[in-house]
Amino acid sequence: MGVDAEYGRLVIEVALLPALSDNYIWLLHDAEAGHTAVVDPGDGAVALKGAAERGWTIDQVMVTHWHPDHTAGIPAVVAATRAKVWGPEAERDKFPGLDHGLADGDGVEVGGAQARVWHVPGHTLGHIAFILDGHAFVGDTLFAGGCGRLFEGTPAQMHASLQRLATLPDETIVYPAHEYSLSNYRFLAAQAPDDAAVQRRLGEIEALRSDGKPTLPTTIAEEKASNLFMRAPDAAEFARLRAAKDSFR
Ligand SMILES: [Zn+2]
């Protein structure tokens, strides 16, 4: 599956690679520059095979946070391609192979495009997102209908991170790292059984999953409409929702 999107004069193609049990690894390809980046290669073999099948060669690794299901494949990718690794400086000691440490506000060239780095703590304390014009690679911060668990950060931090992502243009395409959409919307539908946007989205997600299709990427507009975590008006309501989701079965 691919998503073509204009980025200025360039066309960046984004490919989705299912990996591990429910991870997605995203590839960004700039044909004009002959450049391919991989985001969060939790499985190196999947990333390398996915690129090779498209005739692409990975030369850049982009890491959102240190968790092994996002980073364990880095050594294999680097060994095969000599790609350089960009990721959160604050988590340098927690994952292998970081060449270029990043902090909020830094810029990263991705082919002919420029990504901006946003620090979006909550799931981990050093978690970053890569923001390109029209595209946001958000790791485990924002999911379709959900958000990451608070392994290291506070509800207030995650609420602020989601609210910051909500300031992106509505049409921004959002690339989370997990296929959690169905369980997320089942939870949201239980929380808000009369919410039309949640019910509509649950129906769309159920149809996609019963066809075996990915539900991602999503958009900022969709998450602002139907993701109660993103709609939470304050950190207290966000914290209540997050705690309820953590114990939802
Ligand atoms: Zn994670």
Automatic annotation (TrEMBL):
Binds 2 Zn(2+) ions per subunit. One of its GO terms (molecular function) is hydrolase activity. Keywords: Hydrolase, Metal-binding, Zinc. Residues 22-178 form the Metallo-beta-lactamase domain. It catalyses: an S-(2-hydroxyacyl)glutathione + H2O = a 2-hydroxy carboxylate + glutathione + H(+). SMART domains: Lactamase_B. SUPFAM superfamilies: Metallo-hydrolase/oxidoreductase. Pathway: Secondary metabolite metabolism; methylglyoxal degradation; (R)-lactate from methylglyoxal: step 2/2. Its cofactor is Zn(2+). Pfam families: HAGH_C, Lactamase_B. Zn(2+) 2 binds at residues 69-70, 140, 178. Zn(2+) 1 binds at residues 65, 67, 123, 140. Monomer. Belongs to the metallo-beta-lactamase superfamily. Glyoxalase II family. Thiolesterase that catalyzes the hydrolysis of S-D-lactoyl-glutathione to form glutathione and D-lactic acid. This is Hydroxyacylglutathione hydrolase. It comes from Sphingomonas humi. The gene is gloB.
